[in-house]
Design goal:
Blueprint: H1 3-32, E1 35-37, H2 39-44, E2 53-59, E3 65-66, E4 71-77, E5 83-89, E6 101-108, E7 114-122, H3 131-139, E8 161-164, E9 170-173
Parallel strand pairs: 1-2, 5-7
Antiparallel strand pairs: 2-4, 2-6, 3-4, 4-5, 6-7, 8-9
Length: 175
Amino acid sequence: MTRKQKRLAVIAGGMGFIAAAVLLVLFAFSQSVAYFYMPGDLAGNPVAPGTRIRLGGLVGAGSVLRGEGSVVRFAVTDPSGEIVNVRYQGILPDLFREGQGVVTEGSFEAGSNIFTADTVLAKHDETYMPKEVADKLKAEGLWEEGKGAAPQGKDAKGQEATGQQAGGQEAKATP
């Protein structure tokens, strides 16, 4: 083999290695992609059972039912009035409660309209809104920047509340 042929073989081998690495990365990302939906989106555009998605909205008032062990059932709703029933097995975040923003990740059960979540994320203060939910509400004209959610509970009395959250982060809610 001449010097030129060796150089071409090394370049071709390197290109092949890079192509294989890129294909593996793309395959890994395609397996972990979860598209974001709100209940109103699912009413007009249902997804196939088993398809992994993120479901965001508000926890419906009076919808939280705790079953045996760590099984929890609740409803996620949005301003359109659509409701999606969710089943979750695990420990819920401390800030999870009715009327608060939530993003769940999972899939619909085959043969039913129940969304089985394996991850539940709750908002962390009175003005936080997940970016996907805020963008969707802004697009529908139902939410304006800077207004956030209405205060609820003991923080709604017109006083500023601060406290320490897990991990040493300070939470601050101002109505």
